[in-house]
Amino acid sequence: MPDHLPNLRHLRAFSEVATSGSVSAAANQIFLSQSAVTQAIGKLESSLGTTLFLRRHNGMFLTDAGELFATRVNRCMAFLRTGTRDAVRIGERRDDAERNTGHQPYTLISNAHLRALLALQNATSYSIAARQIGISQPALYRAAGELEALLNTWLFEKTSVGISLTRAALRLARAARLAMKEVDQGIDELRELEGADAGTIQIGCMPLARTYVVPATINQMAQFKPDVNVGVIEGAYDDLLGRLLHGELDMLIGALRDPTPSPDIRQEQLFITSISVVARSGHPLVQRTQLTLDDLHGYGWVVPRPGTPARGLFDQVVTRLDPSVLRGVVECSSQIVIRELLTDSDRLTFISSHQVQHEIEEGILTVLDTQLPVTERPIGITTRTDWRPTPTQQLFLSMLRELSRPLANPTPDDDQVAALL
Fold first, then answer.
1. What is the pLDDT of residues 74-111, one digit of tens each?
2. How far apart are CA 42 and CA 17, in angstroms?
């Protein structure tokens, strides 16, 4: 929610002064008095606890902090500008009147408007949304109506389950979240400039990465920046991808997709891993070598859920040749559940040995000696194409790449790889 977001009017004033280097020029551009612009800059500096401008007789000049923050604020405004433009373009008009062209709509959006929009995205009624953000229902209803009037576009509609956002509103909500994220990152960068271990890193983590690469990187990061907060979110790929695209996550780490599921994301391969057939250590097949698919016939399977790269490989390598394996199959992505299912039965699973490395070292599970076709999949980083990491986030990415290098270029020295596990 934009409760912590600096006043948008103050941010616009700052952006215009940063661009023009003049309070008077900025005042003319955003239709405010010079005193109002000066006051807005002062309040913004006070709230951030830093000086953004050097005041001189020949103009306003950005400090180092101001330069950093201006980049983020300009990106914030660009997201709002694009979001409102797209919402107006794809939305349904409320009436037949021409939309107001005297101002660009995004310049008139307030914090209250964004608060109402995002609250209603997560609620099914005005009363619930108002209660969740701590304001009165009339205040939220008024702000929502003002936003619709400003764009002359329907943003909220009644459905069988309550109030829902229209397609135009969803487009604007995503832009608003990305805009807010830019300001958050800008504030983090200001703190970093002052020498603080500021900021957060939000990671969407898929099974293989969370076993060793991500924990190893987090631990190394903590040695350099112990006060940085790291959030690790697990979930289905589609859910994590949605969070990434809305700015709730900074990156996804795990199996890459082919083809790339969205033009708005960038995928970077770190290494390639192979999938193995894994069973409990006392399984009847453990002592046998060069097992074929015929040897595996008749045993139950625990397999990844449909839509995942590992499941695609399983269907290609196993199911296609023996469709009967899907009778009584257990579809699961939880390593804890998979481990318990295997240890208490003769089931098999189709998984990277790295994901169960600890169980293998403890003698709980083992990799069967099977003769399977190539079952490789790429593991890497997924980010938004328009994402600009902070220095702290960039450091995390550098550490992640460095710790993944032994897996991308394996050597006979297994101790180097084992150190990551």
1. 999 999 999 999 999 999 998 765 555 456 888 999 99
2. 12
**251 and 130 part of one domain:** no
- pLDDT tens, position by position, 296-343: 989 999 998 898 888 988 999 899 988 999 999 999 988 889 999 999
Is residue 316 domain-shared with residue 342, that is, in the same domain? yes
Mark whether 139 and 207 lie in a shared domain: no
Do 118 and 11 lie in a common domain?
yes
Asked whether residue 70 is assigned to any structural domain, the reply reads: yes
CATH number at 205 reads 3.40.190.10
- Long-range contacts made by residues 340-343, C-beta under 8 angstroms, separation at least 24? 341/302, 342/278, 342/279, 342/280, 342/302, 343/280
Which residue segment(s) compose the domain that 335 sits in? 276-374
Q: For 349-361, give the DSSP string.
A: EEE-GGGGHHHHH
* Shared-domain flag, residues 32 and 155: yes
CA distance 21 to 61: 6
**pLDDT for the residue 354:** 78
| Banded model confidence at residue 415, pLDDT cuts 50, 70, 90 | very low
Alpha carbon of residue 9 to chain centroid? 27
Tell me, yes or no, whether 73 lies in a domain. yes
